[in-house]
Write a structure and sequence with these properties.
Layout: E1 3-8, H1 20-23, H2 28-42, E2 45-50, H3 54-69, E3 73-79, H4 88-97, E4 101-105, E5 127-130, H5 136-148
Parallel strand pairs: 1-2, 1-3, 3-4, 4-5
Bound molecules: ligand CA2.
Ligand CA2 is lined by residues 11-12, 14-15, 18-19, 23, 79, 81-82, 84, 105-107, 109, 116.
Length: 150
């Protein structure tokens, strides 16, 4: 059974506690359940994580790339949070690791402040999704399956 990684970046541990108008009422634990259900539908295992630290995301992307190369993982859904808009290190990590990444955002970043319109992840991502709320997570897993399974 192959694994799908879902990596969440800074402040996403706060989901469901603040800014429900932007991010909804679901918690990160609720999101994990949505992802579990999506993976189960596809016969895949889920490895779901959150960190507030950029270098940890770099290490996890390397790990996902190694697992993908070994044939034990399909790729990763990545909500890098605010690092999306700042991190050359994440851009380089995705390229260097050779991991298939679906970039995911809960909110429609293009309908928000201008500083959220640029992504350092997007040029390295296989696909980009934004604005579906937390339901975007299972949709992104479906999308990862669609682009990776023959
Ligand atoms: O829409 C998304 O998923 C974002 O990646 C979320 C990031 C934001 O910096 C990106 O521009 C778009 C922020 C995550 C913070 O999440 C919170 C959730 C609840 C309360 C406070 C922050």
């Amino acid at each position: 059974m192959k694994t799908v990684f879902v990596f969440n970046g800074p402040n996403l541990n706060l989901l469901g506690t603040r800014e429900p108008d932007v991010y909804g009422a679901a918690t990160l634990a609720d999101v994990q359940q949505l992802c579990e259900a999506a993976c189960a539908r596809h016969g895949l295992a889920l490895d779901f994580r959150q960190t507030n630290h950029e270098g940890v995301l770099v290490d996890w992307l390397h790990e996902a790339g190694r697992a993908q190369a070994a044939g034990t993982a399909l790729g990763a859904v990545l909500n890098a949070g605010a690092y999306t808009h700042t991190s050359v290190a994440l851009h380089d990590a995705i390229k260097g690791a050779g991991v298939t990444v679906i970039e995911l955002h809960i909110s429609n970043v293009h309908a928000r402040e201008a500083f959220r319109h640029h992504s350092f992840i997007a040029p390295t991502a296989r696909a980009v999704m934004a604005g579906f709320g937390v339901r975007g997570y299972p949709l992104a897993i479906d999308g990862l399956v669609a682009v990776t399974v023959a």
